[in-house]
Amino acid sequence: MRVLKFIILFFITISSSFCVQANDSIANLSYQELFNKGMVFMKDKQFEVAIKYFTAATEKNPKFADAYFRRGLAKDNLGLTEEAIEDYSTAISIEEKPVFYNNRGINKAILGIYEEAIHDYNMAIELDNKYAIAYINRGYAYSEIGRLIDACKDFNKALELEHFMAPSLIEAYCNELY
Questions:
Q1: Do residues 172 and 151 lie in contact, with contact meaning Cβ atoms separated by under 8 Å?
Q2: Which residues contact 152 (CB under 8 A, 6 or more apart)?
Q3: Cα gap 138→158, rounded to integer Å
Q4: What domains does the chain contain, in order, with CATH numbers?
Q5: For residue range 111-128, what is the model confidence (pLDDT) as tens digits?
Q6: pLDDT score at 5
Q7: Model pTM?
Q8: Quick one: how far is CA 18 from the chain centroid?
């Protein structure tokens, strides 16, 4: 029994020393190194671990918009829609990029908040009027609230911008209108 107790205590000690070493190594990394490690874990689809690294990066540099954005993507992949929206909103408050608005819009559409999603897609398009996926996404949001003419205008704009999904969306939503 004493030997078993010793073995258990030994493994607890070893385990906690590994945790301390892992935390120490995170503490010694720059925000950019933390971000890069988070990206590696994203690529490997280890989203929970990626979130930890992106969080550490934002703690070291609270103005690092891309780290909030990537953490939002990781949360998207875990189905944490509302938390992803928070991260995209934080990223937008630091730096406005079309992709930040577009992804926040996608999450709002997932929640059925189509008018707010459309606003985000409008902002993405305002920042980059050649951002075809924002037209696709806004068109989808329009279709969900019964604005098929507006949806088809967006799908046609996406076709003009040569987005690969546009022809099938036009066929599915617009052929009856024209």
A1: no
A2: 139, 170, 173, 174, 177, 178
A3: 10
A4: 1-83 (1.25.40), 96-178 (1.25.40.10)
A5: 999 999 999 999 999 999
A6: 43
A7: 0.85
A8: 31
